[in-house]
Amino acid sequence: YGSVVAVSGLNLVVEKGEAICLLGANGAGKTTTLYALAGTILPTTGTVRIFGKDARKEFVSIAGRIGFLPEKPAFFDFLTARENLIMAARLARKDITVDKALDRVGLLHVANAKVKTFSLGMRQRLGLAQAILTEPDLLILDEPFTGLDPECTTEMLKMLRSFVDIAKVTIVFSSHLLHEVETLADRVAVLNHGRLLACDQIHSVLAYDSSEVDVLVDSPAAAANRLASQPWVERVSEEPNLIRVRLKDATTHQLIVFLMSQGFVLLGVIPRRRTLRDYLMKVCNT
Ligand code: ATP
Predict the structure, then answer these.
(1) What is the pLDDT of residues 154-177, one digit of tens each?
(2) What is the pTM of this model?
(3) How far is the CA of 265 from the centre of ligand 1 (A)?
(4) Which atom of ligand 1 sits closest to the CA of residue 32?
């Protein structure tokens, strides 16, 4: 953008039937990347290939197979939700029943209401309905869950995940809502100042960390005290109703045997699952 280099040297391949999330701080370049993919802006240099085709040269044939949700979806406010989608269907030159999309996002009951009366979340739902209207092969979604209530978020996550799993739709999206990312993404790509910092499968990001264990025990304070003096324990902290133990040179099995040999009653031993937040902190601070 003029003298601002928003994205640089980004090289990313997304497979068919994969959901990938672009993560990163405000201004990292996520929206710019999504807009370049959707053809809304043209990159100064570099190439976007979609369905194996050069997106700049063959945009018309590609565009019909893409659904796009921008950060702030715009509508004709004086038209109803249904009329807006009919317009979108006509622009896409497709003979589509728009009510299916309205129903999927939970807006069928307000199909005849003018968009100017819609709340933020309702506009976002309508944006999603517009993105999925043509049943595209590729969905490009910028912050799809912003403004949605928890019930709608759950429904949208279920719907989008089923598109990926059943119809092999590809989804490229951005989000700051880490729980939603954990649920929808197969892979996450972290951007920082327009560059790709890391890209990993979500199952490896969210793996269990067997060296950090939450222990539910009958006498947490006494157990924490006893563990603190063991050389194989790196750290122990008392949390409400449990103790959190970081092991140095020991397995969870050793920890269990030790506590039982000391006469404690174990109510549960849970290896800690890494979170996306842990991953981001690590990636962004190294
Ligand atoms: P956010 O999480 O806040 O949505 P983002 O990762 O989507 O951020 P971008 O919107 O892609 O980030 O912005 C990347 C960089 O490009 C930022 O430095 C931003 O200020 C700049 N930028 C974005 N749009 C424009 C524009 N239209 N004109 C000039 N600079 C822009």
Answers:
(1) 989 999 999 999 999 999 999 999
(2) 0.89
(3) 55
(4) 11
